[in-house]
Amino acid sequence: MKLIYVANARMPTDKAHGHQISTMCNEYAQLGYDVELWVPTRNNPISKTVFEYYGLPASFKVRYIPTIDFIQYDKIIGRLGGWLQVPSFMVSFCVYLLINSPSRKNTCFLSRVPEVVFVATRSGYPSVFECHDWFQRRVKLSLWFLKKATGVVATNSLIADEFICRGFRGEHVHVAPNGVKLERFALTLTKEEALDRLQVSGAFKTKCLSSTVLMYTGSYTTMNVDKGIELVLDALKSIPRTYFIAVGGAEWELTKYRTLAQQQGVLAQCCFRGRVSQDEIATYQQIADILVMPFPRKAHYERHMSPIKMFEYMASGRPIVATRLSSIEQVLRHESNAVLIEPGSLQEFILAIQRLKQNERRSARLAKTALSDVAEYAWRQRAERISNWVGKLV
Questions:
Q1: Which of 43, 179, 319, 352 has CA 20 to 30 A from 391's CA?
Q2: What is the CB-side half-sphere exposure of residue 333 using CA atoms within 13 A?
């Protein structure tokens, strides 16, 4: 079977969705499917190919659909650029599909874009929608586009329930959380070995070796909403001999959080680093004593996410402190494979860190259980489950 994944996204990109899409395409290809990734031509500061950037073999084809990139003019036309990008891409996709016309007998489309699923389905192709978040202002229109979809992949059961409550048949909705590349993140390095691999020295190395290292990886905000780093900064003054490292921020995020740390008087206890490769993230996590994920109680975090970092944390062999949210509790369990606290609770966060620092045996037990549990969330297994389910539908 040919699988065509259509994404209205700049590829490659430093955003998490690019990593997820390219990884899944590779996993489908490794399972023996003929895979193509269709993406728009976009102005891209990244000069590497998809395979070079994400460290993947050239196991699938990448086809660039000629598209007017309105987003590059956002400084001139503002938000209008984002609004125009979807119709611009959809016109290009329709023309491209008409010209190429892959066989309808053995081709299935996958996409995160409801309009793509609508066009592909109405053109006679089995089409599956992959939902990583609930819809914002266009719920009714998006659901209408998906009425004839072959199936829906939801990244957690809460999203799946949203579809079923709106009339989608349960057997046509498949729950598949995000995952992790175990061979990349399940490392067994000491702090010293990880620091040497990253070729760091000086004050940073000294602080890492002489302190309990808390670490957060990934973007610092989503939709301009803080992902809990402000809570960590608030806590540092109450947790002596602790060093906080945040890896993965955009330039404006680095500036913002350095300023906040300085205002809190904890800048000397912090290190903010920009976006790095997946291999580097895996190595950074080996420096950590505790990995933190203190998301706030917002609708997106509460119900509509399956954070890739959660599975990367679990594979690292380090204890995790996260917030008690419905989406998180589908994977992490308090005192089994993580410590869960109430969102926004400064005192609970401080207490959780202090107790992990004081009890190495407990920390090791939580980390060991998380590492065992994450085995079922490997990307390969996700690809197998989805492809087997799609095969039954088509």
A1: 179
A2: 7
